[in-house]
TrEMBL record:
InterPro entries: Aspartic_peptidase_A1, Aspartic_peptidase_AS, Aspartic_peptidase_N, PEPTIDASE_A1, Peptidase_aspartic_dom_sf. Gene3D superfamilies: 6.10.140.60, Acid Proteases. The gene is LOC115377782. This is pepsin A. GO terms for biological process: digestion; proteolysis. Keywords: Aspartyl protease, Digestion, Disulfide bond, Hydrolase, Protease, Signal. The active site is at D90, D272. Residues 1-16 form the signal peptide. It comes from Myripristis murdjan (pinecone soldierfish). GO terms for molecular function: aspartic-type endopeptidase activity. Disulfide bonds join C103-C108, C263-C267, C305-C340.
């Protein structure tokens, strides 16, 4: 397993970036397809990508959903001595939770479990935690312990210890989730990990950044405390947040071949590492998929795998700049029975999610100091 590392500038050793490598493993969909269970699973637990962004839960229960295509996770540790866990670094939620020895759900039984009895620094909180999913729920209790992220020891960090978990987690490589959105979103009022990092002065700058590689052999990384220029080129476009709850920005329009095909007049989008696809309202996503030549088959939008090189780019116009996603990026080159799937998925009524399909193209910087998202072309 790859461990975190620290980069320091030659001119000033205090300018340190703490980096956590991300593994790109098999997705839950791929595991289920290998076992011949995907169709049954898909029908029983339909994908609802917008569940986690329902405003009704913004200050209470934190919704999540069964994104069967999530692939990236990194390693953190909790407790003294440390117990290691694979977590999804999720900019679309704010809580940290991992499976615990109190959980007997199938999803817990094939993942690492936190044992508070083996940590000399654990303290019980006494409160319960309930995180609602699009296909079930996670319930548990809250506790405090030392959480180590990339060598940064965050003491007395509140986190969730699961007692039950939704079935789809059984098929995910990650054990739990580390949320990186704003504290106002956090279930049970739990202070997010990054907020404690900032409060304790553990990061040089109040920002973190994400690079997602398309390659399974590695290279993906979350950087805490700054920006790593080796992962992008060209200028950074800084975009002010339109809502300081999620990492939410305004998109001006979406075009194909110069024609506005979606988001005419502007729309709201959340930059979310915890969503695999680019998600939007059904009519808009249908329009984009029609323009790129995709058809709807059994819940997915698919294209002929041999036609990718002839398919057009899809361009997101944001803050006066163009962010182009080529077909080589938005078509997932894993053939299904019907063909290759596109990375554009149906969502809610108006909100968009710029998930991993977008972030793989654009190095994404999340600045709490300025309440902005920075985007630059990924290397």
């Amino acid at each position: 397993m790859k461990w975190a590392f620290v980069l320091c500038a030659m001119v000033a050793l205090s300018e340190c970036l703490v980096q956590i490598p991300l593994e790109k493993g098999k997705t839950a969909r791929e595991i289920l397809e290998e076992q011949g269970l995907w169709e049954e699973f898909r029908l029983k637990y339909p994908y609802n990508p917008m569940a986690k962004f329902n405003d009704r839960f913004a200050v209470a229960d934190q919704p999540m959903t069964n994104d069967a295509d999530l692939a990236y996770y990194g390693v953190i540790s909790i407790g003294t001595p440390p117990q290691s866990f694979k977590v999804i670094f999720d900019t679309g939620s704010s809580n940290l939770w991992v499976p615990s020895v109190y959980c007997n759900s199938p999803a817990c039984n094939n993942h690492d479990k936190f044992n508070p009895g083996r940590s000399s620094t654990f303290r019980n909180n006494g409160r319960s935690l309930s995180i609602r999913y699009g296909t079930g729920s996670m319930t548990g209790i809250l506790g405090y312990d030392t959480v180590t992220v990339g060598g940064l020891a965050v003491r007395n960090q509140i986190f969730g210890l699961s007692e039950s978990e939704a079935p789809f987690m059984q098929y995910m490589r990650a054990d739990g989730i580390l949320g990186l959105a704003y504290p106002r979103l956090s279930a049970s009022g739990a202070t997010p990990v990054f907020d404690n990092m900032m409060r304790e002065g553990l990061v040089n700058q109040d920002m973190f950044s994400v690079y997602l590689s398309s390659h399974s052999q590695g290279g993906s990384v979350v950087t805490f405390g700054g920006i790593d220029p080796s992962h992008f080129y060209g200028p950074i476009t800084w975009i002010p947040l339109s809502n300081e709850l999620y990492w939410q920005i305004t998109v001006d329009s979406v075009t194909v071949n110069g024609q506005v095909v979606a988001c005419n007049g502007g729309c709201q989008a959340i930059v979310d590492t915890g969503t695999s696809l680019i998600v939007g309202p059904q009519s808009s996503i249908q329009s984009i998929n029609q323009w790129v030549g995709a058809s709807s088959q059994n819940g997915d939008y698919v294209v002929n795998c041999n036609s990718v090189s002839q398919m057009p780019d899809v361009t997101f116009h944001i803050h006066g700049q163009q962010f182009t996603v080529p077909a080589s990026a938005y078509v997932r080159q894993v053939s299904s029975y019907y063909g290759c799937r596109t990375g554009f998925g149906n969502g809610g009524d108006s909100l968009w999610i710029l998930g991993d399909v977008f972030i793989r193209q654009y190095y994404s910087i999340f600045s709490r100091a300025q309440n902005m998202v920075g985007l630059a072309r990924a290397r």
